[in-house]
Amino acid sequence: MSEIFSTSTSFADLGLRPEILQGIEDQGFEFPTMIQATLIPPALEGRDILGQSKTGTGKTAAFGLPALQIADKGSPFACLCLVPTRELAIQVARECRELGQHTGLKVLPVYGGQSINTQAEKLKKKPQIIIGTPGRVMDMNQRGLLPYDQIKLAILDEVDRMLDIGFRDDIRKILGTMKQKHQTIFVSATISDEIERLARKYMNDPVELSAVDASSLTVAQVDQSCVGVQEWDKRSLLEHVIRVEKPDLALVFCRMKVTVDRVASSLQKKNIDAVVLHANLHQGARNRVMDKLRKREVHVVVASDLAARGIDVDDITHVINYDVPEDPEVYVHRIGRTARKGMKGKAIMFVTPDQADLLSNIEKLTNVEIHQTRYEDFKPGPEPRRVVEEREKVEAQREASRKTKGRVVDTVPDKDQGVDATKFPGGIVPKALPKKRLGGRIRTRRS
Fold first, then answer.
1. Cα–Cα distance between 85 and 135 in angstroms, integer?
2. Does the pTM exceed 0.70?
3. Which member of 60, 129, 346, 350 lies 3.0 to 4.6 Å from 79 by CB, making a disulfide possible if both were Cys?
4. Which residues contact 12 (CB under 8 A, 6 or more apart)?
5. Cα separations (Å) of 38 from 49, 60, 225, 387?
6. Which run of H or of E encompasses 156?
7. Which CATH class is domain 12-212?
8. pLDDT tens across 294-342, in order?
9. What is the pLDDT of residues 369-398, one digit of tens each?
10. What is the residue extent of each domain of the chain?
């Protein structure tokens, strides 16, 4: 518990206003998390901050509470928070509204996928806190609906992910346009050299904070295991694991959107209530999935990594890595969707025989040996014919290669096979290979 929460500190000790404290109490929070306890005081002092914290550690409230404190009803567009995805924009806005329900402040998410006219009408009402994706924020600014010159606090959440998906130029343009005096807060799971360069350019003597050991925060609360499986058995294994584990709410992560669709369809055919969440869904469908999640109307969500960035639900009991991520940091982000705010969670990873190196890289990053488990009553299926044929083809190629020396194949015409002697000089068919051969090597003047 002490790894996540600062039990020696209360929210009142952090210097927050009474109406904000009331909102915190209404949400049932007793103690701040480590990142909240370390980030909020310097933020309320007006310092620029470069904070490092993993998902599930309360980082949204860590920057959201200072935003609620700094903004006031007479200061429209006082705070701007940039996030990488539309789901995260909706989630951060929701949490800020809940925490600030007694402040009277207006919080508005702006993002692509929703009618721009709808968001434009809401911006005309001059909300105090804006949570948005970079592209839509820039669009609204160009339309004259979201002025940068009134911003007192600029927040960048999940900076590492925004850089990963190509928002570098947008971030530089937005921050570079803010010429007035303002405060800047970066929050990121990892702090790369590029993020530090951004901080030096757009921050004034920033305070650098880290919520203790970033990897252990998530790892300590999650029961991690891996299961060895052949690629063709993964769908059957997933169905079996879900029936055995009986998760209250499980997130199944796949690398590609096409895999997400196929896996969800396979589960649905087995009468398992599974829904899909990936970037190809239109916004209305994505919102409906998120509503089902929050209302506990679904037990399995099959998702891609990018779409799942905005899933901030406390009661996710299982994270199943259907595909092992190539980037170990992605694994940490995935399992951070469970075991949130001090609760326990379970992470299961399907590992095929050729993925031992990926597993090792994850263990090195998390500094944890992920134990292997077996589901004794799971019966692997037969090897598919296409796999057998492909292996036989590869073995035949290897055998042919083994018999081949250089560029000359060690075979000679066989008279018994009806060889046409007229095609050979003098009509003489060779019975064996010559004793001396070039072997594909030609001597030149250069050699």
1. 10
2. no
3. 129
4. 21
5. 11, 13, 32, 54
6. strand 153-157
7. alpha beta
8. 788 888 999 988 766 656 676 789 999 999 999 887 888 788 778 665 5
9. 899 999 989 999 888 888 888 888 888 888
10. 12-212, 216-372
